[in-house]
Amino acid sequence: MPCQSCIVQELSVDIKFEGPQNQQMLDDVRNHLNRRDFWFEETEGIMTMTESGVKELLDFSQDYMEIEHIDYRFEKSEWKPFSTITHLLDKQWIDEVIQKKLIVSHSQPIVNRDGEIFAYEILSRFQREDGSVIYPNEIFDAARTRGRLYALDRICRLTAVEYAAVLGKKVFINFIPTSIYSPEFCLRSTVMLAKKLGIDPSQFVFEVVESDQVDDIDHLKSILAYYNERGFQYALDDVGEGFSTIEMLEDIRPHFMKLDMKYVQGVSTDPTKQSVAASFLRKSLEIGSIPLAEGIETMEDFEWLKGLGYELFQGYLFGKPSAEPQREIKLTKEQISSL
């Protein structure tokens, strides 16, 4: 079931011309593109071309056509004004990032109640060929704009699996469920790579990020069932007061649930956050999930949550994400004695 988002190649764009002036100019458009040797084809009044042709058409239309009466789409998405296509073209750099695998894995420790490393979360970091950093919000915006979300998610997963072999402990790996249209097809490479590297599937925990707004719960369940049947575990990330919905938690029953850091930081002195943390803990235990508090930065919050009954913790108090795996937790003698 190949799709354009799985293979990073030049996008094909559909162009629709409306208005009498634009219709009159179509022969000139065809002749111009042919003279410049740009590929295009026409079906039922829609002209399809590659991005290089689109750039040429954009210059031509701005000079000779009514651009406000031209629309475009790609991968059968919604029609948009042609005047806004520069947003799509300007994000073309994401293709190079994916094709050249300009991705580096970092890890951050996850500790147990005794402050010992239980696992690592693997985080993707991106860079251009010149070494400059590309921030996650920038790269995922570009991937969504160009329909590269699956391709980016796939290369991040595979890079993380390779990094897991170095860590030698349980690892948490984020993934974007909305980018996966078929678990059997899209996740097969992840399973095959883990098997090739000889890593036990139980070492992996795949995190579903709540902020990705999963609407199709049945589809999400099929993805998690695919992982579960092959021995992998899964977690729900960034859970807060709404818990996505209680029904969702009942349906998917994650092995781990992460309390959103906005309810963690300052929880030792904030009654509202304490109430959310307590409700979260009760719900996680009710559905058989292991509760994990992320974003721990102070001993006070760590001790309060530990006293409440939380089992796992993550945050700058124990270590920041780094390319070189952190093998021990560096706390002061006073902090260690209080554990």
Automatic annotation (TrEMBL):
Residues 87-335 form the EAL domain. InterPro entries: Cyclic-di-GMP_PDE-like, EAL_dom, EAL_sf. It comes from the Bacteria. This is EAL domain-containing protein.
